[in-house]
Design a protein that fits this description.
By secondary structure, this protein is an alpha+beta fold. The protein has 10 helices and 8 strands. Strand 7 and strand 8 form a beta hairpin. Helix 3 packs parallel to helix 10 and helix 4 runs antiparallel to helix 5. Keywords: Cell outer membrane, Membrane, Transmembrane, Transmembrane beta strand, Transport.
Length: 456
Amino acid sequence: MVKFKILIFVFLSISLLFNNVKSENLEEALSNAYVSNPIINSKRAELRSFDEDVSAATSRFFPNIEVIGSYSETNLEYGELSKVKTNPLSGSISANQIIFAGGSLINNRLSAVNKVSAGRENLNYLEQELLYDAAEAYFNYLKSEQIVGLRESNLEVLKERLIATQIQFDVGELTLTDVAQAEARLSLAIATLAEARSRMQGTKANYKSIIGNEPEKLEPYIKKLFIPSSENEALLFALKQNPIIRFTEKSEKSSRYQVASNKGLLSPKISISGEYIYSEEGNFLMNEDVDQYQITGTIKIPIFYGGLNWSNIRKAQEINTRDKYLIIDSKRQLKKFVKTTYANYKSSLLKISSTKEQVRANQIALEGVKQEFQLGTRTTLDILDAEQENLDARVALVRAENNSNISMFLLSFYLGNLSPHNLSLKVDPYDPKINYNRVKNTRIGLKRIQVIGNDD
């Protein structure tokens, strides 16, 4: 009775140990990657640096103000009787304000604003790319884990098959050839299991590098993402929704304003400046205060700068031309990727359906071969082949389901639809407008961003 209670206690302890293994679903994995991935966080920091370009461009609309002050004390001695002591004090405040710059300032600011808009679209694209990479890492590890499980089960079946074959050989029911065939198939299973485990370690390392933690007990993903009903609908959706298109369009707009800004440097620049000077002469002869006021209007007309201004204009024009071509190329590439991925996704669904039928048929065939083996109409090799075909079909089904999920996420990525909201991620989406609104009109102050994460 005591031994029975001990066995029950051990069994319950083991059960609790396995039940306490933390499971992780796809939404949790994607959320971890979205929040903690160092690459995407570096891109967010880069976008915040673009926000400062707007602040810098805006600063040129404001006056430059400087304050200068000085105080000195001098003692001069002439022999034993003469002594001169001076302690002059002076200070000044000056301001300079640009009145007209040929549109250079406003176009420079518009260029910076559109650069920020392009940066946001690029960040959106990179975030969706990260979520796809994380989903792919999740599915690939889940696939490798399932394949290892299938091959481990197959290995146990082949071990039992070898034992049964050896027993039947010992009693004279089977031949040495049957034993050799069972041994060969077992050796093959050991080798393929080792290869599967090796691949699982590779997918595990990739999972951690993207998502940030090691996979534990991953849950299968059974949801379906939104996929347009036809290829044409998918193309129209992608051209409207994919952020890479908007990124190239905003980049072209930014470089177009930069051309206008550089052209403005050829125009006259009008500015006004004012200065107030206060000085105090403190010596033994006089002690008087001096106040001086000065207001100056300046017009500066560029005549010749060695061709620098014209070179800057031509450079900006070529950059704008490049951006125009990138818009065309991005649309062409996107159309190609959407068409290819859409076809792959549709074919993956058919592959799953046919592979499921293959698994069903192979299972029936395996049971039939086993029964016929008992009747003596089938050989050991027939059973081994049937078991191998059944295993291959199950492995093929795992791969087909994995490929279908990856194709679905890849197509959704090209559609521009892999947002945290659409994936139901429990995260606060990164809002680039918060930092932009905080710094675009900030004239004084610093801020510090804490770096979070580790390199484990």
